[in-house]
Design brief:
Elements: E1 6-7, H1 17-29, E2 37-38, H2 61-80, H3 84-104, H4 119-123, H5 130-152, H6 159-172, H7 177-189, H8 193-206, H9 211-235
Pfam families: TPR_1
Keywords: Phosphoprotein, Repeat, TPR repeat
TPR repeats: 177-210
Length: 236
């Protein structure tokens, strides 16, 4: 006896009434043992403007939230184990789940968006609880912050990408200490010492006793002084 897998039709809007009636008639006239596994929202076959066919539940928003948080936690564990490349992969997977969540919630344009632009869509949805919204927002910021931290541990550091991730965090949370400090470090190594000093001083306001911040401020100010002396010498 042949095995019929689930039949999933997302909507009957594209079917004419005649075709819909014919499909339903064929279904009910087929012996029960041979019927395909169709999940219908309206067992009687009447269409009331919504989707007639029930979508599978494995992509419910709560499931996507759980997967995103799981990937983030796995990334954190990989970072603690100094498996930085694996951690980067896990954090990216978490961000992709956030993007997938927006698809589930009905945003038709998520394919053209970067993960950092997705949270406004989530915040407008009534599908997620306030707790879930907060968890996803925090997860996004933590993933970008952690991605920057992982990159700084690599043998060849992509400071441009570190800067990019940190600025995404600061766009949402302007006083985030880690993002401020790492932005300063990235700008320092990219040779933009004025911007480096700005972000380092902002991070110093958050943590005045942090020795790493103090050291980078000193290094940056020394670079600025040397550049000023060089420019003055060249001008004369």
């Amino acid at each position: 006896m042949p095995f019929y897998g689930p039949v999933q039709l997302s909507s009957c809007n594209s079917l004419s009434p005649g075709i819909s009636s014919m499909l339903l008639r064929l279904y009910w006239e087929t012996p029960q043992t041979l019927r395909p596994n169709i999940q219908m929202c309206h067992p009687g076959g009447r269409h009331h403007g919504g989707s007639m066919w029930k979508q599978p539940s494995h992509n419910e928003p709560a499931d996507v939230v759980r997967r995103a948080l799981d990937f983030k936690c796995q990334g954190t564990q990989c970072y603690k184990d100094k498996k930085y490349r694996e951690a980067i992969g896990k954090y990216h997977r978490a961000l992709l789940e956030i993007k997938g969540l927006c698809r589930v919630l009905g945003d038709p344009d998520t394919s053209s968006k970067s993960p950092s632009s997705l949270l406004p869509t989530i915040s407008k949805s009534t599908t997620l609880t306030d707790e879930q919204k907060g968890a996803m927002e925090n997860a996004e910021l933590e993933c970008y912050n952690s991605l920057a931290a992982c990159l700084l541990q690599m043998e060849l550091v992509n400071y441009e990408r570190v800067k990019e991730y940190c600025l995404k965090v600061l766009h949402k949370e302007g006083k985030n200490f880690k993002a401020l400090y790492r932005s300063g470090v990235a700008y320092y190594h990219l040779g933009d010492f004025q911007k480096a000093l700005h972000y380092l001083k902002e991070s110093h306001k958050q943590e005045p006793s942090d020795t790493n911040v103090i050291r980078y401020i000193q290094l940056t100010e020394m670079k600025i002084r040397r550049n000023a002396q060089r420019e003055k010498k060249e001008a004369t």
